[in-house]
Amino acid sequence: MARYYLVDACRYLPASTEITAYAVSALVYLHSVTHDARYLDRALSGARFLIRAWDPASQTMPFEIAPAAFTYFFDCGIIVRGLLSVWRATGEQEFLDAAVATGDSMARDFESPAGDFHPILALPARTPLPRDPLRWSRTATCYQLKSAMAWWDLYEATHDGRFIEPYERVLEASLRTYTDFLPGHPERPKVMDRLHAFSYFLEGLLPRAGDSRCAAALRDGIGRAAWHLRAIAPEFERSDVYAQLLRVRIYADWLGAVPLDRPAAQFEATQLAAFQVADAELRGTPMDGGYWFGRKNAEPLPFINPVSAAFACQALELWETSRAGSAQAHRHLLI
């Protein structure tokens, strides 16, 4: 799966392991909703691509495979969760084995002397890249909790206690520092980008939503994210931020951590739905049914992002149907 479709240039960016993993999780989710075998078939194809993408020389999962120049801590966690989603749906051991290998690589290769986890390593030597406090993807901050959630998922899948400690380590650091993440940048559009990352922190709290500190952080974090989103949206807004905030509201309510603010959720759902491409002239093109990545001053940016589309699809389906069921099962299906 490509990272973006460039609308103005009519071309795709290179295939990405992380984006493919998000697509795998999204396809498994759609299969759970529709029971349409085509979605599971495509998810299996994507998961097998991920297994083939594993770099045996570095014993890690590369960011892109042409060439395999970098590996990202965050991406590896998303890949673990994508592989586990297919394993739960099919029971095929190869996907669990690949998820375990990637989770072990995260713990082994990315750990820094300070005890946190480097965001990016250069391959094949697995050398840490310099960090940049103004670029959230170049930091080891609270957004990493969603990726660390892969370790918790591996613990649930394997009952192997070695996966508990690294998740708990990132959780403790995130709870101590998350209040410093926003606004985090002097430029308001960059704060909107950081809202996307901050939402990853909120999602990463969900396995421990029953813990009083995590529930309090969810309540506080949802409020912070919603305030910044509404303040900056007239200038710049991202569809994935609306989708992530709406999803975490629904999940936090299901898990008994934060009662759902229905007027706020309705507002976010309405705003999110307006990002979907609905132009009749674009039917049958790669844009058909997709979601604009964002808008600046109410004008769409020329990007169709598969992750934004996946997040939006899930958020709106959850909001519109309010399907009952196991909160734990729903958490495993979080894209």
Characteristic key phrases:
335 residues, mainly alpha, Glycosyltransferase, 3-stranded antiparallel beta sheet, 12 helices
Q: Looking at the structure, what is the overall shape?
A: globular
Largest sheet: 3 strands, antiparallel
In terms of per-residue confidence, which ranges show pLDDT below 50 for 5 or more consecutive residues? none
- Rg measurement, Å: 19 Å
**Total beta-strand segments:** 9
Short description:
The chain has 335 residues and is mainly alpha-helical. 56% of the residues lie in helices and 7% in strands.
Write the SSE topology.
Blueprint lengths: L4 E2 L4 E2 L4 H18 L2 H17 L16 E3 H18 L2 H17 L10 E3 L4 E2 L16 H14 L5 H14 L10 H17 L7 H21 L3 E3 H16 L7 H12 L20 E3 L2 E2 L2 E2 L1 H16 L5 H6 L3
Antiparallel strand pairs: 1-2, 1-9, 3-4, 4-5, 6-7, 7-8
Helix pairs in contact: 1-2, 1-3, 1-11, 2-3, 3-4, 3-5, 4-5, 5-6, 5-7, 7-8, 7-9, 8-9, 9-10, 9-11, 10-11
